[in-house]
Amino acid sequence: MHGVTLVLCIHNHQPVGNLPSVFEDAYTRAYLPFLDAIEEFPEIKIVLHNTGPLLEWYEDHAPDYIERVRALVARGQVEVLGGAFYEPILSAIPERDARGQMQMMTDYVSGRFGVRPRGMWLAERVWEPRLARTIHEAGLEYLPLDDYEFRLAGIEDEELVGSFLTEEQGVAVRVFPISKKLRYAIPFAEPEETLNVLRSVAERGEGHVAVFGDDGEKFGVWPGTHAHVHTSGWLKRFLRALSENRDWVTTATFAEVVDDTAPIGRAYLPTSSYPEMMEWALPTKARRSYERFLGRLGDDGLLEEWGPFVSGGTWKGFLSKYDESNLMTRKMMRVSEKIAAAQRTSNILETLGGFAGAVKVVDGGAATVEPAVVEEAKRELWRGQCNCAYWHGIFGGLYLPHLRAAIYEHLIKAERLIDGVRGETWDHAEVTDHDMDGRDEVLLESHSVNVYVAPSRGGTIFELDVRRANWNVLATMSCHDEAYHDEIRADGDREYAEGVRNIHDGLKAKEKGLAKLTCSDSHPGVAAIDHFFAPDVKRAEVEAGGAELGDSAWGGYQFELGRRNGSIGVEMSRTGVVTSGEGVCPVLIEKRVWLTGEGRVRVEYDLTPDGDLDVLFAPEWNMSFLTPAKEWVSFHAGDANGGGLRKKRTLDAVDTMRVDDRLRGERLVVSCEPAAGVWTWPLDTVSRSEGGLERVFQGLTLITHWPVRAECGERTSFAVEFAFSPLSAK
Length: 730
Description:
The chain folds into two domains: 4-275, 7-stranded beta/alpha barrel (Alpha-Beta Barrel); 485-726, Distorted Sandwich (Beta-galactosidase, Chain A, domain 5), CATH 2.70.98.10. Strand 5 (164-168) and strand 6 form a beta hairpin. The longest helix is centred in the middle third of the chain and has 30 residues, at 323-352. It is of the alpha+beta class. 30% of the residues lie in helices and 28% in strands.
């Protein structure tokens, strides 16, 4: 039998903003025991990639891990891969940031492990052809991608036994196909089954290479894997099996393979990722059809032959599938451009001489900031590019509020650093197509608060940043229809057997009754969504998506920028229609959003019907909080004692209410003019994670409402104001 070379590539990652307990648990259950085992088998070579968030955690909590890996590198047992430091989707961030993040990782690996990285790990293996040039120009030579990506290019499975050369505009990198068979066998199958996969590669001819590349969390964090991999000894049995079969299985690093073997040939891979990711990125309706089609192919015995020609979506599909992902991305792009503009100005001033290292900002007055502050802002921006919170598949990802909050925290901090040159007090209004939908939004910014308004979508407010707290108050997650909701609705309370399992196989509901949290239609969980309801409507009807009588919740407004009494704002108007018992009534809606010099956000309404009107006017406000627990976040109205956000409320004649957020140290006071009725309920979603199907608290839905009984031409006015202060302030 011919021999085969096996490259074992382990990728360890925890997202920016993940809970400290998760870092600790992953380290003790997966990363550390894996390292312990590898040290016992010096004859087994591996390739290791740890992302920047983990490397920073090791530095603070487990520096011995760094030293032990350095020792393994020195003895030639481990190759450390580079990449983009904070694990962004490389093709989804500006080129300047991609280059900067890769250089940061190269510098880190060179400094901490004593060897400059030659290869890299590509986050989620999200490939675009143009990346060949980006990677090459970063000084990196090779990377692993999924074999599926090669199969999409028409390369047969039998040919995937080594590396290929791909190029862009005449510069090339080597790409290695990761074996799906090995990825699904390790660590779930017994070692002999993995050896059988390797035998099938060896039997094809001499000099062939097989690559395993996957998450280190499979070796202790995924459900049941710690007991299977470590307690029951799977990992040591596997390593021992490789050692005992060294006569025909040689473990090697990517660097050794590159130095010792030529590429098989050229390969031009399409924009792609691993198949599960391309499925998850599809719109839900298309994903259901995609799953049915793959099922048909499987039932007909054609999946192996025709499957490689079935491509799902692309990673950037998440930006159209989820508004929340798109809005985070646009915020990231805006902050990146602010930093880049400051850097360009600095470069110009340095070229002119006399102002070396200065950054000049015209809007807000001439000022300077030290280069170190620009570098700090870049670091915060790059942290805010960590990919995990921007998409959703088998892991919670985008649905996890603490991950989204962390992204906004770092982006707002970066923005605050770079905007610091404007002075202690400033404001700025801008009209731009911020969310890239072909329609203009209005961005109101000041030294204390940002307010982003979408006149074309009901005049809603879709971002509200309290700069002091690095908090986007509107960073919620809506209820989206997901393909896996079908299983919840059909059999949501079914329990699944415990024990080791591939997280792609089967679902487990963590509690009963999750089906009631699913939805087939939804609207973005933003603020100032203007509803008209019947006068006698109940909270439960509205919470369940009760009948809307108006067309202005998402209707387009005419608008112009405004300024008054030290405030900047946008003044909007539209004539909508309201259908009530009296028939269809046109209503002129004048809506104004003001950002005051004190950092308060004020939304004013004037309603003038062209006919008699008897309805309930009910603006909706969705706000992001990390927990409903009253000891951390409490809701107060009038003199009543504060309660948690899990409670559903029906309140009358409320002129002020507040939310005390002890996690952020912020107090939010909401004032209503005139006093309003108020409904509140928790904003919950159901999503999928590696642990199963779960309820996730996303924040608070608050609806202020007033009865409108007006005759034709009679104007009625309302206002809601949001004020923020440090919680310690009285």
